[in-house]
Amino acid sequence: MSQPAVQAEALCGWTDSMPAFGIEPDEALARAGLDNGDVATSNRISLKRFARMAESVGERANHPAATWTIGLNYDLAQLGEIGTAITSAQTLGAALRRFADHFELLQDSTTLDFQVKDGTATVNYRILDPDIWPRHHDAMFSLGIVARIVRMAVPDAMDEIELGFECARRDTGLAMPLSRLSFGGEVNSLSLPVAMLDAAMPPSDARSNLKDLSTQIARKRRAEPARDRLAAMIFARMSQGEINQDELASEIGMSSRTMRRRLAEAQLTFQQLLDECRMRQAMLEFRTRPECSIAQVALRLGYAEHSNFTRAFTRWVGVPPQRYRADTLQSQH
């Protein structure tokens, strides 16, 4: 599979902010295999390296909320046309919708969606590639940008928002009561009262071209290998029940026959792709959910019988899942 990337502009603001948190920028970038020249010489950088840099900065900073603060102070103009689309929206709800609708232009193998339900509006964020972990500080940075957008319309919004994280409970450094923080979730999220969505964004002379952004998304999707698009969709739906290949084909605008032909060109069947995604996700589950039984992990991955999962995992990795999990937990201590 192709390595997921993020727009190089994501680095903007990081190097200027690092010294305030006791971090030497060049060293932080070098630890992740990046440098300041990446913004000037490349449109896109490795998402894995970016997440590694964020984690390095977050763990070494003199304040646990450093990466959140960098996101909270992020200059939306660095997002180019998408930043313009956000700041030219008339209401907060429209701004968040535009961010979610066009986020895939900024970052691969990631979901950022906007939902409204039962009086609560929620922005959910998650990197889908299971090989990118840990990724807590990438989530802190990304939700910090969402909070920046929210505060543009509602300056005192922090008094009412709630945050959720994939990672286990930890000190976020945020001035929020624990009742408004949750951990161990399926996604990272920022929730706010739906009434805030009607709040006016600051006046702006900028004019966005939403039609052009839609054209860019269509072009990006056409250029992306079917294998990569399908894998991202599988990871996004892994814990939501049975994965139907006909439904996935329809969602990416292909007939099932065309999808199978595209996969065959990559010497792959849909079942092989599904198995690969399941095994990669299983490895992450064993690292991050040690409290789950083998049967629970199998169910989360879509196996009706955990014995089928055990056989598949053993074929893929070479050792039974029980042994793999035990070795993984031991290596973490």
How would you concisely characterize the structure shown here?
This protein is an alpha+beta fold and 333 residues long. The protein contains 16 helices and seven strands.
Describe this structure in words.
- The strands form 2 sheets. The protein has a 5-stranded mixed sheet, covered by helices on one side. The protein has a two-stranded antiparallel ribbon with strand order 1-2.
- The protein is globular and about 60 Å long.
- It has 333 residues and is of the alpha+beta class.
- It is built from 16 helices and 7 strands.
- The mean pLDDT is 94.
- Helix content is 50%, strand content 10%.
- It folds into 2 domains: 66-198, no CATH class; 225-331, Orthogonal Bundle (Arc Repressor Mutant, subunit A).
